[in-house]
Amino acid sequence: MQDFEYYTPTHVVFGKHAVERVGELITGQNGKKVLIHYGGGSAKRSGLLDRVTDALEQSGISYVMLGGVVPNPRLGLVREGIALCKREGVDFILAVGGGSVIDSSKAIAYGIANDGDVWDFYAKKRVPQACAPVGTILTIAAAGSEMSNSSVITNEDGWLKRGLSTELCRCKFAIMDPTLTYTLPAYQTASGAADVMMHTMERYFTQVDTLGLTDSIAESLLKSVMRDVTAALKNPEDYDARAGLMWASSLSHNGLTGCGTDGGDWSCHQLEHELSGKYDVAHGAGLCAVWSSWARTVMPANPARFAKFAIQVMGVQPGADDIETANRGIDAMEAFFQSIGMPVRINQMGIELTEEDMRELAYKCSFMDTRKIGRFVPLDKEAIYKVYQKAKA
Length: 393
Fold this sequence. Notes:
Blueprint: E1 11-14, H1 22-28, E2 33-38, H2 42-45, H3 48-58, E3 62-66, H4 75-88, E4 92-97, H5 99-113, H6 119-122, E5 134-138, E6 150-155, E7 160-165, E8 173-176, H7 186-204, H8 213-234, H9 239-253, H10 267-279, H11 283-298, H12 303-312, H13 322-339, H14 355-365, H15 381-391
Parallel strand pairs: 1-8, 2-3, 2-4, 4-5, 5-8
Antiparallel strand pairs: 6-7
């Protein structure tokens, strides 16, 4: 096991009716003027926004509101939010939604705490020195942004999707009420669960040998998510299943499942970012569409690692050797993704990639042929292209 640091400062308030504590929690952070940032109409239709504003008013906290966050959140709305916050004197950002809303909120928080254009931070031209405080009311189990140090934003100019990770943006608190996820469409529930799993799988596939307890935690979390998403799809109001998914979302991306590793591979996330940046697909679905093609590409570099995953997570019977066992595990993972309605090839998302498309995606994913992605097996532009080609159909 390698040396590591584990930092999780977010105050979690988990359970039914936790939303009513939002005023108390913001007051505890000395928030005086809040931006309530949210997505589409569901937060309004469900009455959640009314509950939030009532709680803030009861605590004597003033607020402004900005909706319109879409999946793969846009830089244009981030810039609008920054301008609104500066104009209104906002000192606290409250994200009401899932990963896209939280990521957009973090970007706004960077923007109001630093001079210059916020995109410079995501484009790696500058490093942020501060971040306004952010809290969240989580409405979907997926991205894990509620307890992570990262955010991802899409720039409409070139449709570049880029991430930024610093300890500055960690949420001050995360309110998690599983009942808020009861009305999610099945596709969103499944896509979110896939996202949760991939955050752990990205960390699991490593060349580090001695992982012990961290491996056991990761394997248990993955099996728990598979069980809970299956139950939630059968009964959307299964509280225990929804609670399991919501807590797994946080544990999968707050660093716990990667303690002692090399930090993980993250190739699939980089591959998917280009897909969702260009085609606006659901992040979890996009990850499913590329995972097995990536896995079959890199598995020969360490088939024993994939064989362990096959046995411990997917429950397959060992084959004649590690390669056969590993392939059985990859097949089993594909079958699971399909069982919950997720794609395992890019064309299953309605995208018919041309040769030109795949070359463009590989070029962007390699940052215009200036980097390799991944640690398990570093992939250059040509190797990235071959994964897209394999995942196409």
